[in-house]
Design brief:
alpha/beta, about 220 residues
Length: about 220
Amino acid sequence: MIKHLLFSLLFLTLFSCNSSKNIADFWDYSIPNENFNDRVDYPALNYSDSKNWLFYETSDDYRDLLPKNYDSKNDSSYAISVFYIHPTTLYHGTNWNADTNFFRNESLIQLCAENQASVFAGITKLYAPHYREMHIYSYTDTVNGQKAFDLAYKDVRNAFKFFAKNISGPFIIASHSQGTNHAVKLIQEEIAPNKALKNRLILSYLIGMDVKKNDQK
C-alpha cells in the first residue's frame, strides 16, 4: 500500500501550479503598499462550511481533478486521508493576505489541485483547505511577511484541527511551497507533541521548500 502511494507521489514533483503559462508572468506583480494592520480583527474561518475548502472528500467529486482522458477504473482505493496545503497563488494585489473572495475567483488555486492534489484523487480521501495565504512579497518583507504568514497559518491550523477531529484513521500531510512552510510548523506544533495524532501520521510529503532533518520531529 505504502509503496503504491510513494510511487504515485513522485508525480507531484513533475508538475507546478503554473501549467503551460509562462512563470515569468507571475513575477510582474503588484505588492502590498502599507504595513500589515495589527489592529484589524481577522475572524477565524468556519471549516464546517464547504466554501472554505478547496476540496472536501464527501462533497466534491475527485473525477473533476483528473485529466479528462484518464481512466481510473483500475485504481485501488486506500483507507487513508490526505491533508493537502496548496502553494502560493497570491502574486498580485496590495493586501498582505488573500481574502475569502479570492478562494472563489482565483483559477490558479484550482490548477494547483488539478496538477498536484490530483495524484491522491480516487485512491485516498482528499481534503484541501482554503486559507488566507500570504502574498508572495511576504518572503521579501520579513517583518510584515511574518505577520501575514501567521494569519495564514492560523487558517491552516484550524482547518487541520477540524480535519483531525472529524476524519478518523491514518493520514498523510502533503504540501508545496508556502504550503510546506505551514506544514512544517503544523507538524512541529500540533502533530509531533500529540501522540495520538503522531501515530496516525503515516507520511509527510513536503516539497518546494527546504525541510531539515529535524523539522518533522
